[in-house]
Specification:
globular, single chain, 3 helices, mainly alpha
């Protein structure tokens, strides 16, 4: 089984829906990976506070009905935005 941070969006969504992984576990795995590589790759300018990210992930786990057909596809999936601006 892949480490949670290695999952594709589709794989993560499938495992979240099947309750094979929680949104909190996925977020913790990604934050741990950021800690491991950020000094080398310098990919993140700003990260929302970890406390807030973990709170949101826990809330998603508690409140989400994964069988809801109207559930947004990225629910529970951490997302980073890359801005390609050499001035930053």
């Amino acid at each position: 089984m892949s480490k949670p941070y290695e999952l594709t969006i589709v794989e993560a969504r499938q495992r979240l829906k099947a309750k094979q992984i929680s949104a909190l576990e996925l977020m913790q795995s990604i934050l741990q990976r950021i800690d491991e590589v950020e000094e080398k790759v310098k990919a993140y300018l700003t990260i929302v506070s970890r406390k807030e990210l973990l709170r949101i992930a826990k809330e998603i786990d508690q409140k989400t009905n994964w069988n809801d057909k109207n559930l947004p596809l990225l629910t529970g999936i951490p997302v980073a935005v890359n801005i390609m601006d050499p001035k930053i």
